[in-house]
Design goal:
By secondary structure, the chain is α+β, with helices and mostly antiparallel strands. It has one domain: RelE-like (YaeB-like fold). Helices cover about 30% and strands about 25% of the residues. It is built from three helices and seven strands. Strands 3-7-6-5-4 form a five-stranded mixed beta sheet, sandwiched between helices. Strands 1-2 form a two-stranded antiparallel ribbon. A hairpin with a 2-residue loop joins β5 (about 80-85) and β6. The longest helix is centred in the last third of the chain and has 16 residues, at about 120-135. The N and C termini lie far apart (about 55 Å).
Length: about 140
Amino acid sequence: MVVDPQHRLEPRLTAVVKYDNNTYMSLTTRPISWLKPALKEFQSFPAAAQTSMLAALTVAAAGSKADIAKPLLGFGPGVMEIALKHRGDAFRVVYALQLGPDLIVVHAFQKKSKRGIETPKAELDLVRERLRRLRAG
């Protein structure tokens, strides 16, 4: 880079790319939409947990499944749960893939159940109700 008298940066060509692989340039991802309560709860998560979960959501938006995502049983096809353990706490994000063109984040919560890995019934009921409303239009 060369600095001109007006302090603007002027790029200079320093190398030529012999091989260009545009595989990643052609990937299309779905937009990620959030229900407001889910976003509000997600924003209360620790920054490192948010980063990991956003990476998993990005993978899902690109058409794949992250290692920390799994189907949320009993909610139909395309409803997934991201489960993350972070510093002794457990965080969850539930998203839906088949409710339109967007990936929709339906619910985010910190799991506080003392019964192993089971998701608390109140959280599942909330997901069920939000999905019902989304499907109804």
